[in-house]
Design brief:
This protein is α+β, with helices and mostly antiparallel strands and 193 residues long. The chain has 2 domains: 141 residues; 43 residues. 46% of the residues lie in helices and 19% in strands. Strands 2-3-4-5 form a 4-stranded antiparallel β-sheet. β4 and β5 form a beta hairpin. It is globular.
Length: 193
């Protein structure tokens, strides 16, 4: 459970990977985020159908947030070292789809970090990526509505608290109806606040 930004795409061979990395580094530095650069340049911009074990690009690490992988496989598609390790050897269709679907959860990082991640992705996506697809569960990518994003984050945090409360204090009794159990959990959550 969280609030994610899911993204996929491929590198535009008419642009420059070193410039892409430099632009992402500039964002990370301006925001005070840690970063790590992998390989700086593709061996060829004639991307093959397959891929090697080499990772190209950069990862940035906002505080209290998942890493934002802006990395590519040798075929030019966005991926990450973790995705390559998990799904790279699989021939199952669903795993091949997961190989190229990245996500970052910003729920614990807050509204400010979420907005910065979206702004960075928009800036680099328009300039360096093809077929760039983003699904922002906070809605900010499409609306740029900070209030809506804040309300969505609050709602998700409350759901997490509910799950935590139900795991830590409210025992389900054998034969108890779901309605009665959830009523007790809600009551416990309300009194806990």
């Amino acid at each position: 459970m969280g609030l994610g930004i899911l993204y996929s795409g491929r590198f535009n061979p008419d642009t420059s990977l070193p410039q892409f990395i430099a632009e992402v580094e500039a964002f990370a530095t301006a925001f005070g985020w840690k970063q790590r650069v992998y390989e700086h340049d593709f061996p060829s911009l004639q991307f093959p159908n397959g891929y090697s074990e080499t990772i190209y690009g950069i990862v940035v690490m906002p505080p209290n947030c998942d890493p934002v992988f802006l990395c590519f496989l040798s075929n030019g598609r966005l991926s990450s070292p973790l995705h390559l390790e998990s799904f790279g050897d699989s021939r199952e269709v669903i795993h091949q789809e997961y190989l190229y679907l990245l996500s970052v959860s910003t729920l614990l990082a807050g509204v400010d970090v979420h907005i910065k991640v979206v702004k960075m992705l928009k800036a680099i996506g328009n300039k360096y990526l093809l077929d760039f697809d983003v699904k922002d569960e906070g809605g900010y990518w499409d609306t740029e509505n900070e209030e809506y994003l804040a309300a969505t984050m609050l709602q998700q945090r409350q759901k997490m608290e509910l799950v935590t409360c139900s795991r830590n204090g409210s025992t389900y009794f054998w034969g108890e109806s779901i309605r009665l159990y959830l009523s007790r959990v809600m009551r416990d959550l309300i009194y806990k606040q």
